[in-house]
Design a protein that fits this description.
Helix content: 10-25%
Number of helices: 14
Number of strands: 40
Structural class: alpha+beta
Shape: globular
Mean pLDDT: 90
Strand content: 25-35%
Radius of gyration: 26 Å
Length: 727
């Protein structure tokens, strides 16, 4: 539910702040005041009074053509907040445009991906000058062949405020493609099928899917995942035969446990269709011969609490990334296809206390492992015949590396990406046999000003209050003086075990070139220092996440990297929860924060299993139907812990159609902050009425949203036009 969207997190990591010398005109603006309508909420004998519970709307109310009185009241409030935001910030609008053009100017608008080969075709994603969306195409056999356009998303999206194309899945005979579309931004996709020979889009139209699907080997049967229409939990796997009514589709699997979700995939070998069931701490998989789509699925290993495994197929075995035998950092095991239960599993790569095994890729002659040691990515290559076993060399102190999907099985070439805070992203083909590499593409930074050697990146280690060492990755321009007057932007996420990479960003250059330091805090709740780092930042240990962030802030202040007058913070989604927690705990440390799509009404949301995806999160936050978890969650829930005191300048963003964090959480949070805060600092709520969790869908529209955030920090740091706020 609160897991952040990866495109948005990349966007968030790049936000920049710029300085401008001329003074901008001040603006008078009347502060919105939300109506107070007390609603009593009782659990475990504890009564909470929520004055803004009325802001919650159902999907039916939001999407109705004729809005009822409550819906109109909520929309009016959100539009009033939007109008206030625009009025307060209108004097910065010219600079927003300037920032947008600056960031856009670094991007190569006419660009394309490195082609990848799959089943005889080279596939390419490209952008044209002025276009918001990609064009997907392919070439048969070689790159000199005629280009075949599969989808021009610019044409498909022209009548929509939001448009997302995904889930592209091509049949084994290369003639058909399943594609998924979302025009509302609630991740409820329509699945359609296109004939790539004739261009015809078939009448088959599957509603309310996750966007995921796989073809059986008959080239006419697809398996796909459906969502519960209310909770949006991925709950069922269906089988559809091309040309038949979707009403006749067969449910081949239903996930009955409402704390689990389900998905369907296909092995790289094309031999098996695999249905996976997952919760935060347990998984289960079942398989079916892809040549027999009407057959019965066979369970690999029945689910057990605290047993996780991820499946790949090679030869006569399934390979499993698993935490079996208390392998906290995971290990790789294998089992015969004919004997798949856990008593038959044997170690391939044993567990290591100091190394997290994050993933693996199987090739005909090689096994490729993705590992993390002391916070840093490593890629290990092993021949099956044991003649070679080595790591790819990386020389920077902080960096990010990722292994691509690599659909080809019988190849000596592995494709991976590499970048760092100071090194633009590269796509590299590495020959595992002769250990040579071919840089297929290096990200171009246009504008003629970027030089890698002008920037410094390093890691420092802050000591948290319980003695744990927390890494902070830093990047700044070489001419930036580090002192109490240096502006620092501190970012973190800290949930679901997701580790934010130390990656390059062209837009962040606008921050660095104007004297800002960017600080990425690798707090508990991620897996930066292994699985234990995650376990120590969830459930009844969740406050370690917040304490780590605050202690990193204090480290930066105490070591004269900055001061409270120049320290800024940002987080999104579950990172928005982090922002809500730290401003309740230590508001005096920060001059300003941005909380994007923030999960801030934790106790109420986790008590309501009708809200999308709540039940699947009990093992991340705890189930507050249990009093122990209720008391603990309430003790940090940002909405519940607001008190009458001074808060820093705050900007909050949300999307009206967000299915991950419902819009009413940040809206209620802002209303309550307005009611209780005792300062005259800025408090802004910006609601995208057309989008959801990931914000705008077009690449330029997304940059404009980013420019809004940059400008918020800019106005605070450079004192552009102090705004008078009327009570």
């Amino acid at each position: 539910m609160r897991k952040i969207v990866i495109p948005f997190i990349v966007l968030s990591l790049t936000f920049a702040i710029a300085c401008k010398n001329e003074t901008m005109k001040s603006t008078d603006a009347k502060t919105p005041v939300a109506a107070k309508e007390p609603t009593k909420l009782e659990k475990h004998g504890d009564v909470r009074v929520d004055n803004y519970f009325w802001m919650r709307l159902s999907d039916e109310q939001k999407n109705a053509s004729d809005k009822d009185a409550q819906t109109q009241k909520v929309v009016n409030y959100l539009e009033e907040e939007n109008a206030y935001y625009k009025e307060v910030t209108k004097h910065t609008k010219p600079f927003q445009e300037e920032l947008f053009e600056e960031m856009k100017g670094r991007i190569k608008e006419d660009d394309s991906s490195v082609p990848y080969k799959d089943n005889g075709y080279f596939y390419i994603t490209s952008y044209k000058v002025g276009n918001q969306y990609p064009i997907y195409s392919r070439k048969k056999g070689n790159l000199e062949a005629k280009e075949e356009v599969l989808f021009n998303v610019n044409e498909m999206a022209k009548d929509f405020d939001y448009y997302q194309l995904g889930g592209l899945n091509i049949s084994n005979d290369n003639k058909l493609v399943v594609f998924a579309t979302d025009t509302v931004s609630r991740r409820q996709y329509f699945l359609r099928i296109k004939n790539l020979e004739t261009g015809e889009i078939y009448k088959d139209n599957i509603e309310n899917s996750t966007g995921g699907s796989v073809w059986a080997n008959d080239n006419k049967t697809i398996f796909y995942t459906k969502k519960d229409p209310v909770t949006l939990r991925s709950s069922s796997i269906y089988r559809h035969v091309l040309g038949t009514p979707t009403s006749e589709d067969v449910e081949v699997y239903h996930e009955k446990d409402d704390t689990f979700g389900t998905y369907v995939t296909k092995s790289k070998s094309d031999k098996y269709i695999i249905i996976g069931s997952y919760s935060t701490i347990s998984t289960e998989a079942r398989y079916l011969d892809a040549d027999n789509p009407t057959g019965e699925f066979t369970i690999i290993q029945p689910r057990e609490r605290d047993l996780e495994y991820e499946v790949s197929h090679f030869g006569d075995h399934f390979y499993l990334l698993t935490n079996k035998d208390k392998a906290l950092n995971f290990k790789l095991m294998k089992t015969p296809v004919s004997k798949t239960t856990k008593e038959n599993w044997v170690d391939v790569i044993p567990h290591r206390d100091d190394t997290l095994l994050e993933g693996f890729s199987i090739f005909k002659d090689y096994l490729v492992l993705e590992e993390r040691t002391n916070g840093l990515n490593r890629v290990r290559i092993k021949r099956w015949d044991k003649k070679d076993d080595y790591y790819l060399p990386f020389n920077e102190e902080t960096y990010a590396v990722g292994v691509y999907a690599n659909p080809d099985f019988d190849t000596d070439i592995i494709r991976y990406s590499y970048n760092s805070f100071t090194t633009p992203s590269s796509v590299i083909d590495f020959n595992m046999k002769d250990q040579t590499k071919d840089v297929k593409k290096e990200q171009e930074v246009l504008g003629g000003k970027f030089q890698k050697e002008n920037y410094i990146s390093k890691r420092v280690w802050a000591t948290a209050r319980d003695g744990k060492k927390v890494a902070i990755s830093l990047v700044y321009h070489k001419d930036t003086d580090l002192n109490n007057n240096t502006p620092v932007l501190q970012y973190a996420y800290g949930s679901y075990g997701y580790t934010i990479p130390d990656s390059f960003s062209t837009t962040r250059l606008s921050l660095l070139d104007r004297g800002f330091v960017y600080a990425l805090a690798h707090i508990r709740g991620s897996e930066y220092l292994g699985r234990e780092w995650y376990e120590d930042g969830k459930m009844l240990n969740k406050k370690n996440t917040f304490n780590d962030f605050v202690d990193c802030s204090k480290y930066l202040i105490d070591n004269s990297y900055t001061s409270p007058e120049h320290l800024y913070a940002m987080g999104g989604s579950a990172g928005g929860l982090l922002m809500g927690a730290i401003v309740n705990m230590n508001p005096e440390l920060y001059n300003g924060i941005i909380a994007s799509v923030p999960f801030v009404d934790v106790i109420s949301t986790m008590l309501d299993d009708s809200i999308p995806l709540t039940t699947g999160e009990y093992d991340e936050w705890g189930n507050p139907n249990d009093k122990e978890y209720y008391d603990y969650i309430k003790s940090y829930s940002p909405y519940d812990q607001i008190t009458s005191k001074d808060y820093p300048n705050i900007m909050v963003t949300t999307g009206f159609h967000d299915s991950q964090v419902q819009y009413w959480e940040p809206a209620k949070w802002v209303a309550k902050l307005r009611e209780l805060k005792t300062d005259n600092n800025l408090l802004l709520l910006d609601t995208n009425m057309e989008a959801g969790h990931g914000g705008a869908s077009g690449r330029f529209d997304a940059l404009k949203e980013t420019a809004k955030m940059y400008t918020f920090f800019l106005a605070l740091e450079d004192k552009l036009g102090v705004v008078k706020i009327k009570s």
